[in-house]
Structure formats: structure tokens, C-alpha cells
Amino acid sequence: MARILGLDEAGRGSVVGPLVVGAFLVEPEGVDRLLEIGVADSKLLSAQQRERIFLTLPSIGECDAIVLPPREIDAYVARGHLNQLEARAFGALVARLGPDEVRADACDPDARRFARTISRWAGPTPARIVARHHFDRDDPIVGAASIVAKVRRDRAIERLRRQLGTELGSGYPSDPRTIDFLRERLAVEVGVPGYVRASWATMQRVMPDRPARTLDAFDP
């Protein structure tokens, strides 16, 4: 029976915390079960719904994830290669899990190019790799991967919140709580702490003297 691997990420645009690439491997007969438990694009689910589904997923298929810390993200952003970093992580999960087919949510405007890049990082593999935009919305296997990625990232942010003993919001630049947190922390920190993406354009709002690149400046 062919095994299908879904791939997606969470935290690509955040300024605080990691980018998490999630994977879910399942046989075709498990798809109906995914629909029964309410799998969907993680962005369409509440935190409670995601957690409930996440705890059920191991009974249906195999979950895996790669966590990419801010310093690694900054190193790739410096070269304009954020998409390459994400494709590398996707490829590593393909190599690790050995699926027969791969369905990946594409971050590159050219989805076919993104599939080819994943294939290069995956090494020798018989898997057929397909990348599409909004695959997490349209396919329950990719939706399950999006839940794995989102829950793992949410848990990482919660651990950071407990470690620092302060509210830091969602970690995204659009969250006023995150901007307030950054201003307060950077006022007392020496340099940029390891949980913050120093390369993000948001840092120019918080620390105007710091150079940064914006997401729309990235090359594939």
C-alpha cells in the first residue's frame, strides 16, 4: 500500500520563535479517518481543536517535524534563501520517512520549482513529489501536516513564554503584544536574543538602526 507524506510549515512570518516544518505520513485508507476527526488547514482551527486532533493523529499515521531556530533562519535570509531552507527541511523529512508520494504546501510562487528543490534535498527517492499552493486547505494529509507544524510551534512559544515569565503574544509582527514584548526585552538585552529573528524587517520598527530584509525581498 502506497504511503503518502504531507508537508507544511508554521511560523514562517513570525519574528519570535522557530519555523517548524511538520510532516504526516499515512496510507490512503487513513484519509477518511482524518476527515472524521476534523482535520483541516490548521489556520481554520482553534488552538483547542488543533491539540485534540494532534493527539489523535499518531493512531492514524506517523507524525514528524523539524524545528528551525531563528539563527539558522537569519543565516539563510542573509543570502535571500528562505525558500531553500524550507525546501531543505522538507527534503530531510522525505528522506527520513521514505514515502511513496509527497504532497507539499508550496511557499515558492512557482510550485513546480519548489517540488524540484525538495527533490534535490531529499536525495535518491522513488517518491513522487507534488507541491501546490493552499495544499493544506485542499488536502487532509497536508492539513494534518499543518496541524503537526502549528501545534509544535505553539508549544515552543508556550515554553518560551514560561521561560521568560512574560506575555509575548503570538510571535508575529502583526501582533501588538509581540511588538511591545520586543521593545521591552531589547531595551534590557545585550544584543538580540536567540529566540528573535534579527534579520526581520520588524526589527527596524523596534530598533531603527538595525538593517533588515523584508520577506518580499527573498529569492526562491
Structural write-up:
- The protein is α/β, with parallel strands linked by helices and about 220 residues long.
- It folds into two domains: about 5-160, Ribonuclease H-like superfamily/Ribonuclease H (Nucleotidyltransferase, domain 5, 2-Layer Sandwich); about 165-215, Arc Repressor Mutant, subunit A, CATH 1.10.10.
- The protein contains nine helices and five strands; from the N terminus they run E-E-H-H-E-H-H-E-H-E-H-H-H-H.
- It has helices spanning about 30-35, 45-55, 70-75, 80-95, 110-120, 135-140, 140-165, 175-190, 200-205; strands spanning about 5-10, 20-25, 60-70, 100-105, 130.
Unreliable stretches:
211-220
Element order, helices and strands?
EEHHEHHEHEHHHH
CATH uppermost class of the largest domain:
Alpha Beta
CATH architectural designation of the largest domain: 2-Layer Sandwich
% residues in beta strands: 5-15%
Q: What value does the average pLDDT take?
A: 92
**What is the CATH topology descriptor of the largest domain?**
Nucleotidyltransferase, domain 5
Sheet of most strands: 5 strands, mixed
- The span between the termini is 34 Å
Helix content: 40-55%
How many helix segments? 9
- C-alpha Rg (nearest Å): 18 Å
Q: What structural class do the secondary elements suggest?
A: alpha/beta
Number of strands: 5
Number of domains: 2
Major beta sheet, strand line-up: 3-2-1-4-5
Q: What's the CATH H-level homologous superfamily of the largest domain?
A: Ribonuclease H-like superfamily/Ribonuclease H
Shape category = globular
